[in-house]
Specification:
By secondary structure, the protein is an alpha/beta fold. It has one domain (about 40-185, about 240-390): Rossmann fold, CATH 3.40.50.1110. It has 14 helices and 10 strands. It has helices spanning about 1-30, 100-105, 115-125, 140-155, 175-180, 195-215, 215-230, 255-270, 285, 290-295, 310-320, 330-335, 350-375, 385-390, and strands spanning about 40-45, 50, 55-60, 65-70, 75-80, 95-100, 130-135, 160-165, 275-280, 325. The strands form 3 sheets. It has a 5-stranded parallel β-sheet, sandwiched between helices. It has a 3-stranded antiparallel β-sheet with strand order 3-4-5, with no helix packed on it. Strands 1-2 form a two-stranded antiparallel sheet. Strand 4 and strand 5 form a beta hairpin. Helix 8 (about 255-270) packs across helix 11 (about 310-320).
């Protein structure tokens, strides 16, 4: 028994020493960005389940550098702390832009996000003062967008709404989730031992991964190498991208998602505010070779999937309902074809180039919707004053 214990101690010591040497080597030769996923930016919400805290002010690093995350009194992301959302009279035009983590955009500074780039370009091009409200929150889907539209439209006047639909997970299965959204973040207790063990394993593995990602560059290096070797969907593939499988072509999810978007349209109509919808493609839809590697790894037949399927189906569904839908996929693929990286290397959300590309694509449409407002005579304070307020 003593010999067995000595072997165990020797083996454990050797493993720990090897890991220490590996950690030092990675930090010297191939340093990684430690993940600092600050969880203190959300709070529970009776309707939405969770949303951004008001007056949040912290730093987050999802592997693409450390960026500051600040919100105002409504939970909208802003650039400077202690900045309240200005009143309607402070601006010539105001935008309400709703989405998920792609709008939350913790991997870039606020000035580099789609909403702020649109506001900035409108201000420069038209010499008008433009405000862009961004309540985008990680994990939200089209049901949340409907509820957030109701909330924000009741707070103040907006001249245009833009709703972003992420094709990776915004195609929902039921409108009934509207009634259950408030319970989405509540963890129900396990009802038996097997379920309790499964829940514990899930929580433990998630906590361990988060700890290692925040403290070990060796862990991040190994994780990225595994990611690059096995699959290029997500960080490590966690679900099949079923939206792109031909077998999903007849799913009711397309119609259900479109119906909820019609509800969003009706909500904006109540306030006389125009709105349009934008498709946001996942990284593997823009960089098609990523999906090809995924398909090859999983031995998928070429006729089993269609990378443009969600875009085709939703375009037809939205047209039938009279909804305006913009699709920047081709434009983004052109950018990538010219060697421009649009997504992060670690965090697969849009990087600064990606936000710039999408805002560039959208600007003409936004100008068309806002033209009556932008052509009206200026009657307010200086542009410089408003630009400082918007931050």
């Amino acid at each position: 028994m003593k010999n067995l214990f000595k072997v165990f101690v020797l083996f454990t010591g050797s493993v720990l020493f090897s890991l220490l040497i590996g950690e030092i080597a990675v930090r010297m030769v191939a340093p990684q960005q430690l993940i600092d996923a600050d969880q203190d930016i959300w709070r529970t919400d009776n309707q939405l389940g969770y949303r951004h805290k008001e007056w949040a002010n912290t730093f987050i690093n999802n592997g693409e550098g450390r960026h500051r995350f600040i919100t105002d009194q409504h939970g909208y992301r802003v650039t400077s702390p202690n900045t309240a959302t200005p009143t309607d009279s402070a601006f010539d035009a105001s935008l309400l832009i709703i989405g998920d983590s792609f709008l939350e955009a913790v991997s870039v500074d606020n000035d580099s996000t789609i909403p702020q780039l649109l506001a900035k370009n409108l201000q420069i091009g038209w010499r008008k003062r433009v405000f862009a409200a961004n309540p985008g929150t990680s994990g939200w889907n089209v049901n949340h967008y409907y509820l957030e539209a109701k909330r924000s439209l009741a707070l103040r006047h907006f001249d245009l709404g833009i709703i972003f639909l992420f094709l990776g997970n915004d195609i929902v299965e039921s409108v009934d989730t509207l009634a259950r959204t408030a319970q989405a973040s509540v963890q129900l207790p396990a009802t038996n031992l097997a379920a309790a063990l499964s829940e514990w394993r899930t929580n433990f593995s998630g906590s361990l991964e988060q700890f290692l990602a925040g403290h070990s560059e060796l862990f991040l290096f190994i994780k990225m190498q595994a990611y690059a070797h096995f699959s290029r969907i997500g960080i490590i593939t966690r679900k099949d991208p079923k939206e792109f499988f031909v077998s999903e072509r007849g799913s009711r999810r397309w119609k259900i998602t479109s119906e909820i978007c019609t509800m969003i349209q009706h909500e904006f109509n109540r306030y006389g505010t125009p709105v349009f919808f934008v498709l946001l493609p996942p990284v593997y839809q823009v960089n098609v070779e990523y999906f090809d590697q995924y398909a090859s790894f999983h031995k998928l037949a070429a006729d089993a999937y269609d990378l443009d399927q969600p875009n085709k189906i939703l375009t037809a569904e939205f047209r039938e309902r009279g909804l305006t839908l913009l699709d920047p996929l081709a434009f983004m693929r052109q950018k990538v074809g010219r060697g421009i990286r649009l997504h992060g290397k670690v965090d697969r959300h849009l990087n600064a180039n990606g936000h710039q590309a999408v805002s560039e694509f959208l600007l003409p449409q936004v100008e068309e919707f806002l033209q009556p407002r932008l052509l009206s005579p200026a009657s307010k304070d200086s542009l410089q004053t408003t630009m400082s307020l918007s931050h």
